[in-house]
Write a structure and sequence with these properties.
The protein has one domain. The chain has seven helices and no strands. By secondary structure, it is mainly alpha-helical. The protein starts with 13 loop residues before the first helix and ends with a helix. α3 runs antiparallel to α4.
Amino acid sequence: MTAQPLPAATFPARRLILLAGLAVGAAAVFAAMARFGHAPEWGLLATQPLAVRIHVPAALAALLIGTVQLVGVKGTGVHRVLGWSWVVAMLTVAASSFFIRQINPGAFSWIHLLSGWTFIAVPMAVVAIRRGRVKGHARGMAGAFVGGLVIAGAFAFTPGRLMWEMFLG
């Protein structure tokens, strides 16, 4: 029985633009940390409801894994394993968010729309790659990363919110 060859790994030049964007974003975070920052106050997380204690580590894991996935080589076994880990982390982030209603006390806020979209976009992107639609998969996963983590995460770091207090307050 002969082993089937793995599909060729890819690293297109446009990924360098993405890497540059991530570097600029990281520089902005480090600048904010230098201005306002301190070592993270993890004790603040311990005082939060269970949903928040699940949500924050899952979001941080998804952000780390997603960044590695976006800039890393595609089509490898490592990419697949990290990809499934990212899917689990993202769905955990989305699910736990529905139990967090501090922005609009007792009710859902507009940010929950991103969580709902995550439950649609991530499985669609998984189905796309299983059907061989690489571009659709890449767009879906990148969109979920940007919308579900970067945009939502940016609002989580506004003054007065938990992430601001933990990292910058």
